[in-house]
Design a protein that fits this description.
By secondary structure, this protein is mainly beta. It is 6% helix and 30% strand.
């Protein structure tokens, strides 16, 4: 399979991280934003795409550059244990 045509290579630190959506974005020349999720990066994906045009960028990063994974939320966390 042919290598996709990459518009540019961008360092992770130059992307904007949105914690609420775990999405990284970077301005695209078309006026929209290149997008890639934190999970995609953790899975080894490095290509961010623009949803409005055909451009793609390669995100340059090391796995240790990514935000730490949050521990899974425990159900009933903080619930009082009542002895009977």
């Amino acid at each position: 399979m042919a290598e996709p045509s990459i518009y540019d290579e961008i360092e992770l630190e130059d992307l904007t991280y949105h914690p609420a959506t775990t999405l990284y974005t970077y301005p695209c020349p078309c006026g929209d934003q290149f997008e890639i999720t934190l999970q995609d990066l953790r899975d080894g994906e490095e290509i961010a795409v623009c949803p409005s045009c055909s451009l793609m960028i390669r995100v340059i990063f090391e796995p240790e550059d990514l935000p730490a994974e949050e521990p899974p939320m425990e159900e009933n966390k903080g619930a009082a244990v009542v002895a009977t």
